[in-house]
């Protein structure tokens, strides 16, 4: 019998727990819970089951406009008076597309079912009728009390009631939620921490009022009502589903949220690309225009000519006049001509994108052996955009740097330390970390002589933090910190004699100069991205209450006592700046009461707590400052330089202060001494920012930005540094964007996560450019989601950014390969695929249009209906897929050697309206040749027996065969990178065409299905005629020779950079080019770097 119930409210979730005696004879609490219809703990991520799969999947697929359009065509084909094509010419491609998509969806859903079953059938221990019993996760419900043991997963979102550790502490790992492997501490409410056995838990009654379920991992707001008192609940009291209990024997928790309302599942973002929008509109208009032209022709022909044959060739009912005939003819031609953009295009695009994503995942050169992490493409829809990026927005810490902090320098009472020889701490401190290095013995001497301010400085570092300590053996301490800089500060204090040993909810234990000291922990004022500081209030053994605070200099300096002004001027260059403040008992009691009131507030709790924290963090005394070094990752300088040569602008968005941001800019070579000027914008008001943007001032290393930066025709290279508080001036957007985009390097410092996202949105709003954001921490997620493409770095701050991104890897240097190799190739391949696809389908379809003028506009098709069905899904599908997946213009190392090769994607030169119309023009030209050359030649040709060849079936076979040969030759010319797969697909598809054609035109199929195969013997009799092969050869030459001529002339007169690179590094082409230069005393090949041809596969193309 369930022991607890839950009551729902409109705006808040209420959970109240009652003992069995309180319910009396009213009935089973389980039945009481049922009427509220709370979600069970059963997780269902799958979409289908055996019964619903077919109808639901088809319904979803027909939400796509393309599928609905082809279904409409299929319905039209079922009307005999309209369609001259059999229904299977549309239903076969449509069914194939639907089937492939359904198989993919079914496979994905099968694995989701498998994962769901694995999770739902995990065992948990639930308190039922006063005893612990085993239950499956799916049977856990809101109001249950669950017992967790060490290394077990948390089954649902729990309120921690008690644990085996003192003071109700427990330790958890949240890697399943945010990717962070550092342990975190959670603590039960003080009044429930003694409920350590099942008897006490069974009699526990109380009421929990909490916020509705949400996707925030770091926040929880609730109140426990018990014994007529209220106790605030925060995220520190919660265990979220998916966490793992660590270093804790057992704990008990109360289920607050279950099933779909538990901690958020990972959400992935995708951007819908509209690259086919113009194509779809153009296709529709073209179909209508061609249909109208042919319908008008039908009306004229039926009135002028068709009416003369009514006696023996009457109109089919219900047609009774030429207008009605033209109406039907319009819809008939809509069906016949719809293959200008067939349904197979959409499937082919997805297959190609999937292949490109696998190439990224399989790239061993983007694999980090140190952390055993490979690159991962978490989406398939953005691969082409990787080849068009113009702006990169990067975080600094953990993205450009290693996020491995080292305590390098410090300033105490105005005295700087950290410029001398390396120290040996072993003789001084047996608890010292042997890996810690510091280079100034005067600081150690200051500690040894007992300087009070120095001791107070390191005492602050040993107390003001949230680090967890694990002592594996006597004197062997292991610190587990939520951030590397916090671990660096605590380790520094440890080595200088102020060693943090352990903590409880109410105490912090340290060893100070070899003497154990325990402080009473009165309050922790947490760090967040808005406060940018952290404080602790402790009572020392002498009874004095002190507040210790550390944080960003901009936050602390304005909260110091005025008497610190001189010391502040000396110290303010370092970060962070620790400070302290003494409190009297009366001040503490008064403030503590305000804090308790804010914690119990049912609404706006965070805002009220922030105001209370602000009240106590005033009039502090400055102790000093620290300088923590975070080294650049390997290859950052080279990557930024290479991206700059590719005309990609890199902006760094960081929360660090201006000096640190400028230093990192010079370190990674974004800012250089060769720049004409580096300007700064740091005004706090609209007027100040406007003046800094528009009013030139005397030249200095960092000076306000002059007005000429707003012009597009400036000369020289400039850098720009802008602070976060200057960006809030909304009415300066245009000026800021103009100035920033005119600069080679932009660094935005003191940025909040929201401001990072706003900068990205600003560029997206004012610049029609593809943006990419890269970061490694949770504070970068908003920026990553705002950009067109999000890249996550799997680093020291966990995997939260990687989980929210489109692509992830472990090192910033891999970005150059992601963009300049995979991105450029993806863009190139997709553009070539689309150009060829539209060409081959216009060549195929427009033949029907010309034939309409010679068949009385009767909607008679040129080809056999089986050829129409198989053309796009069998005869020409594999070659174009091979080109779209494998094609390259130059090898990967040449792409990195010549970053200017990236620019065509930024300018969208390879597939735009101009290129689209060129493809159409080539397709129309090919269709004219395909129709009229065989028409003219065969009209007067005869067989060897003297019989004429001018019959419909001979013409159809000749035209179809010529079409397949022409498009096969054309894709051979378009292919720039030959593999075994390309050869097999191109020449195999050509052989497959002849095999299928002979089979379809055989006597065997005709005898079995005499009403369906009308071209019996046509292929054999037609292709045995020499004049037919002469016609095929002549037509192919007329189609291909002009294209070859144009490409040769373009290669010789106006070569692209990719052409020069390919020729310069291809021995045969290089020799031919050298011979041509010797004979013509000219040439176009420049920019050669080294010699040697790529091994293995072959690069060709014109």
Automatic annotation (TrEMBL):
Mg(2+) binds at residues 395, 397, 776, 780. It is an enzyme of class 7 (translocase). Residues 802-1055 form the P-type ATPase C-terminal domain. Keywords: ATP-binding, Lipid transport, Magnesium, Membrane, Metal-binding, Nucleotide-binding, Translocase, Transmembrane, Transmembrane helix, Transport. It catalyses: ATP + H2O + phospholipidSide 1 = ADP + phosphate + phospholipidSide 2. Its EC number is 7.6.2.1. One of its GO terms (biological process) is Golgi organization. The active site is at residue 395. Its cofactor is Mg(2+). PROSITE patterns: ATPASE_E1_E2 (PS00154). Its main location: membrane. GO terms for cellular component: plasma membrane; trans-Golgi network. PANTHER family: PHOSPHOLIPID-TRANSPORTING ATPASE ID, PROBABLE PHOSPHOLIPID-TRANSPORTING ATPASE. This is Phospholipid-transporting ATPase. It comes from Neogobius melanostomus. The lineage of its organism: Eukaryota, Metazoa, Chordata, Craniata, Vertebrata.
């Amino acid at each position: 019998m369930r022991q607890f119930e839950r009551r729902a409210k409109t705006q808040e979730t209420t959970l109240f727990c009652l003992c069995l005696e309180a319910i009396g004879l009213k009935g089973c609490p389980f039945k009481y819970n049922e009427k509220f219809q709370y979600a069970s703990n059963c997780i269902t991520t799958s979409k289908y089951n055996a019964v619903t799969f077919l109808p639901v999947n088809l319904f979803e697929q027909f939400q796509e406009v393309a599928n609905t359009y082809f279904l409409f065509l299929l319905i039209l084909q079922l009307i005999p008076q309209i369609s001259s094509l059999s229904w299977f010419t549309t239903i076969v491609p449509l069914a194939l597309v639907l089937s492939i998509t359904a198989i993919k969806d079914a496979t994905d859903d099968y694995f989701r079912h498998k994962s769901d079953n694995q999770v739902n059938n995990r065992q948990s221990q639930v308190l039922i009728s006063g005893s612990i019993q085993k239950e499956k996760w799916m049977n856990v419900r809101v109001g249950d009390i669950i017992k967790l043991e060490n290394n077990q997963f948390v089954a649902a979102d729990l309120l921690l009631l008690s644990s085996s550790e003192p003071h109700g502490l427990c330790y958890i790992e949240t890697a399943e939620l945010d990717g962070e492997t550092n342990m975190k501490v959670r603590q039960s409410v003080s009044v429930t921490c003694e409920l350590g056995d099942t008897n006490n838990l069974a009699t526990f009654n109380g009421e929990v009022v909490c916020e509705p379920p949400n996707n925030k991992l770091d926040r929880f707001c609730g109140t426990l009502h018990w014994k007529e008192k209220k106790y605030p609940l925060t995220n520190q009291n919660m265990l979220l589903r998916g966490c793992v209990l660590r270093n804790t024997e057992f704990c008990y928790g109360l289920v607050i949220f279950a099933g779909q309302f538990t901690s958020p599942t990972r959400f992935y973002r995708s951007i819908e690309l509209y690259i086919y929008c113009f194509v779809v509109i153009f296709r529709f208009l073209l179909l209508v225009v061609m249909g109208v032209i042919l319908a008008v022709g039908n009306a004229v022909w039926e009135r002028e000519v068709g009416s003369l044959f009514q006696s023996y060739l009457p109109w089919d009912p219900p047609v009774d006049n030429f207008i009605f005939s033209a109406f039907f003819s319009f819809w008939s031609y809509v069906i016949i001509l719809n293959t200008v953009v067939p349904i197979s295009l959409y499937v082919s695009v997805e297959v190609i994108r999937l292949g490109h994503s696998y190439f990224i995942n399989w790239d061993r050169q983007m694999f980090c052996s140190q952390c055993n992490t490979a690159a991962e493409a978490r989406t398939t829809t953005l691969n082409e955009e990787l080849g068009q990026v113009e702006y990169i927005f990067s975080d600094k810490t953990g993205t450009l740097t290693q996020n491995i902090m080292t305590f390098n320098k410090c300033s105490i009472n105005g005295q700087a330390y950290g410029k001398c020889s390396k120290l040996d701490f072993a003789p001084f401190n047996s608890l010292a970390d042997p890996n810690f290095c510091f280079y100034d013995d005067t600081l150690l001497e200051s500690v040894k002589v007992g300087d009070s301010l120095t001791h107070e400085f390191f005492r602050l570092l040993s107390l003001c933090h949230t680090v967890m300590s694990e002592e594996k053996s006597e004197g062997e301490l292991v610190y587990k910190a939520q951030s590397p800089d916090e671990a660096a500060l605590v380790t520094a204090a440890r080595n200088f004699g102020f060693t943090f040993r352990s903590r409880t909810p109410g105490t912090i234990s340290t060893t100070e100069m070899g003497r154990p000291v325990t402080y009473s922990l009165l309050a922790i004022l947490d760090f967040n991205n808005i406060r940018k500081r952290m404080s602790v209030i402790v009572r020392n053994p002498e009874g004095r209450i002190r507040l210790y605070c550390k944080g960003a200099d901009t936050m602390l300096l304005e909260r110091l006592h005025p008497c610190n002004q001189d010391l502040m001027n000396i110290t303010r260059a370092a970060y962070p700046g620790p400070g302290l403040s003494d409190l009297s008992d009366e001040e503490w009691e008064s403030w503590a009461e305000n804090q308790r009131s804010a914690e119990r507030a049912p609404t706006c709790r965070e805002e009220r707590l922030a105001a209370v924290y602000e009240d106590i963090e005033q009039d502090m005394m400055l102790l000093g400052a620290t300088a923590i070094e975070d080294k650049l990752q390997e290859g950052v300088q080279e990557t930024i330089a290479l991206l700059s040569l590719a005309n990609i602008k890199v902006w760094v968005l960081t929360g660090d202060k201006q000096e640190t941001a400028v230093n990192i800019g010079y370190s990674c070579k974004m800012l250089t001494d060769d720049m004409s000027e580096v300007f700064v914008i740091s005004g706090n008001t609209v007027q100040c920012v406007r003046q800094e943007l528009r009013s030139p001032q005397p030249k200095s290393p960092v000076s306000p930005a002059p007005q000429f930066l707003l012009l597009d025709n400036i000369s020289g290279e400039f850098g720009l540094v802008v602070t976060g508080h200057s960006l809030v001036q909304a009415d300066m957007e245009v000026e800021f964007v103009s100035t920033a985009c005119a600069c080679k390097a932009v660094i935005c410092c003191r940025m909040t996560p929201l401001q990072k996202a706003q900068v990205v949105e600003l560029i997206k709003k004012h610049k029609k450019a593809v943006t990419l954001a890269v970061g490694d921490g949770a504070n970068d997620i908003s920026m990553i989601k705002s950009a067109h493409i999000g890249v996550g770095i799997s680093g020291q701050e966990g995997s939260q950014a990687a989980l929210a991104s489109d692509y992830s890897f472990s090192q910033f240097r891999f970005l150059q390969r992601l963009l300049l190799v995979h991105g450029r190739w993806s863009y190139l391949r997709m553009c070539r695929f689309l150009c060829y696809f539209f060409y081959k389908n216009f060549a195929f379809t427009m033949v029907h249009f010309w034939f309409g003028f010679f068949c009385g506009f009767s909607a008679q098709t040129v080809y056999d209906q089986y050829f129409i069905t198989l053309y796009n899904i069998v005869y020409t599908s594999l070659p174009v897929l091979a080109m779209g997946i494998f094609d390259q213009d130059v090898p990967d190392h040449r792409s990195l050697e010549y970053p200017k090769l990236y620019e065509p994607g930024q300018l969208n030169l390879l597939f735009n309206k101009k290129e689209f119309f060129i493809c159409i023009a080539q397709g129309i030209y090919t269709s004219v040749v395909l129709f009229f050359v065989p028409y003219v030649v065969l009209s007067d040709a005869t067989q060897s027996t003297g019989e004429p060849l001018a019959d419909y079936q001979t013409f159809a076979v000749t035209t179809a065969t010529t079409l397949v040969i022409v498009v096969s030759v054309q894709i051979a010319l378009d292919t720039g990178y030959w593999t075994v797969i390309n050869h097999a697909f191109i020449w195999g598809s050509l052989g497959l065409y002849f095999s299928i054609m002979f089979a379809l035109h055989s006597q065997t199929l005709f005898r079995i299905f005499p009403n369906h195969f009308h071209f019996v013997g046509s292929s054999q009799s037609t292709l045995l005629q020499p004049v037919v092969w002469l016609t095929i050869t002549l037509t192919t030459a007329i189609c291909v020779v002009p294209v070859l001529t144009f490409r040769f002339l373009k290669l010789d007169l106006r070569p692209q950079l990719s052409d020069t690179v390919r020729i310069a590094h291809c021995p045969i082409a290089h020799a031919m080019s050298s011979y041509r230069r010797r004979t013509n005393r000219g040439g176009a090949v420049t920019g050669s770097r080294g010699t040697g041809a790529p091994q293995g596969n072959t690069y060709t193309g014109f």
